[in-house]
Amino acid sequence: MLCYECSITGCRRDAIGVCSHCSVALCAQHAHLVAEEITMRIPLVKSVVLPRRARLLFCQVCKAALEQECAVEQDEGQTLSSREAEETEPAAVS
Ligand SMILES: [Zn+2]
Ligand SMILES: [Zn+2]
User: Where are the domains of the chain?
Assistant: First the structure.
């Protein structure tokens, strides 16, 4: 399989893996390895982060998009306004 990102720019480079999110094939230059925290849920207590981390491979597009989601979650100041925006938007699902 050939790298999708390289094929856009007209190059042909062998892929070393696929993006965990969108499944495009990626070469070593375009693949981004991320350490994923593994959590274990204990009923009535909380979720506990386990010591070992799993491996996730992302393309640059999905990595940026997923990091963007995290940034919004951490910014509690915008929670209310983003909820209001969701309510006014036409329902895309259902
Ligand atoms: Zn590539
Ligand atoms: Zn992707």
Answer: 4-73
Q: Two tokens at 53?
A: 């981390």
Q: Is 27 exposed, middle or buried (CB count within 10 Å of its CB: 0-12, 13-18, 19+)?
A: buried
User: 21: which DSSP letter?
Assistant: T
- Residues within 5 Å of ion ligand 1, judged at the Cβ atom: 3, 5-6, 27, 30
The ligand placed nearest to the CA atom of residue 9 is: 1
Tell me the CA–centroid distance for residue 4 and ligand 1, in Å: 6
Q: Whole-number mean pLDDT of the chain?
A: 84
Does the global pTM surpass 0.70?
A: no
- Model pLDDT for residues 21-57, shown as the tens digit of each residue: 999 999 999 999 999 999 998 888 788 999 999 999 9
Q: For ligand 2, a single-atom ion, which residues have Cβ within 5 Å?
A: 19, 21-22, 59, 62
CATH code linked to domain 4-73: 3.30.1230
